[in-house]
Amino acid sequence: xxFIDFLSKAQGLPVIDTRVLSAGLMDSxxxxxxxxxxxxxxxxxxxxxxxxxxxxxxxxxxxSGFYIAGVLKNPSYISLEKALxxxxxxxxxxxxxxxxxxxxxxxxxxxxxxxDYRHVKPDLFWGYTSFVLNGQTxxxxxxxxxxxxxxxxxxxxxxxxYLDELRLQHVExxxxxxLAEYALRFQKPGLVRTTDVVQRYINNHQKQVKEL
Length: 212
Fold this sequence. Notes:
Layout: H1 3-10, E1 16-17, H2 18-21, H3 28-40, E2 44-48, E3 51-54, H4 65-72, E4 76-78, H5 80-86, E5 97-101, E6 106-110, E7 113-119, E8 128-133, E9 136-141, H6 143-153, H7 160-166, H8 176-185, H9 189-211
Parallel strand pairs: 5-7
Antiparallel strand pairs: 1-3, 2-3, 4-5, 6-7, 8-9
Helix pairs in contact: 5-6, 8-9
């Protein structure tokens, strides 16, 4: 296959999965040689084995980091700090796309960003929704699940002072009933206690707002 033919098939794709693209076209070993050649010449950017982006001069659409996160490891959904940023619950811009997966934990450091995957058991793989950004489907934890995933996967003593240091904001967007119900599903008493602290923090914040 000539690169111009490859380009006609791949130019409109946000991410290139060579296994899908080359299916039924020719011998897979030939495709691998060509892909390697195009990567070395700077026409393709490898994200992981078999997954590529077209280099900027050849790309027609911008690939969403949220979408890429789901392609690099499936099943997975964005959670923890990146989801907290997305929902406006923390003010900082978060560089790493942290996701939750039922598969092995791993990290991909790519030219398109850093993608970190934290493992949870299948019975904790819930509390996320899908959304479409520029025609690309991604999966994101709800505000409540993002918080609980954060405290579950980064365990430690959580106090009101700690939540101040975390700089939680827009806490009125957190559904306290859902947060408490979700916490019980983890079956971790420590996480339930943490949720109680978070609810006190939210109530204190709402009281301060009313007093202004």
